[in-house]
Amino acid sequence: MSKYFDVIVVGSGIAGLSFALKVAEAGRKVAIITKKNSAESNTNYAQGGIAAVTSQTDDVEMHVADTLDAGDGLCDEPAVREILKDGPASIEELIQRGVDFSQLGDGRVSLGKEGGHSKRRILHVRDVTGKAIEQALLHAIECSPNIETLEHFFAMDLITPPKVRRRGLSAAGPHRVLGLYALNTHQGTVETFRAGAVLLATGGIGQIYQYTTNPYIATGDGIAMAYRAGVEVQNMEFIQFHPTAFYTKDSDRFLISEAVRGEGAILRNMEGEAFMSRYDARKDLAPRDIVARAIDAEMKMSGARHVWLDTRGIALEEMKARFPNIYAYCRERGISTEKDMIPVVPAAHYLCGGVKTNLNSETSLSGLYACGEVACTGLHGANRLASNSLLEAVVMANRGARAVLGYLESVDVMEAELPDWKDGDFRDSDERVVLLHNWDEVKRTMWDYVGIVRTKKRLERARTRIKTLDREINEYYWNFKVEESLLELRNMILVAALVIDCALQREESRGLHYNLDYPNKSDQLRNSTAAL
Ligand code: FAD
Ligand code: SIN
Question: Does CATH place domain 242-346 in 3.40.50.300?
Answer without folding.
Answer: no
